[in-house]
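Checklist before submission:
- one chain only
- standard amino acids only
- sequence pasted in full

Submission:
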Amino acid sequence: MAKGKGKNSRGWSAANTISAIAGAALAKQVLTALWRASTGKRPPANPAHPDVAMREAVAWAVLSGTAIGVARMLASRGAADYYRRSYGHLPRGMERDDA
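Returned file contents:
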């Protein structure tokens, strides 16, 4: 292993994880605020609970899943771009699928 490769790999893993968690947390906060503004109530804490209306449960699951997934992807892309600017190459595992 080249000198410093392991350190860069661990640093990338930590940066990617932290950015993904932060992105997901921010997305949830924004989505919760939008939900409250549009419905006038809090989003369901547990959409699987039988007392939550099916329409509300499905809407929250779809919206939150999509928003959090997109936020995590954007955060990971940002972290990968920062890594590339810092080290001159993308971190291991970030190869293009179509290459």
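Reviewer check: The radius of gyration is 18 Å.
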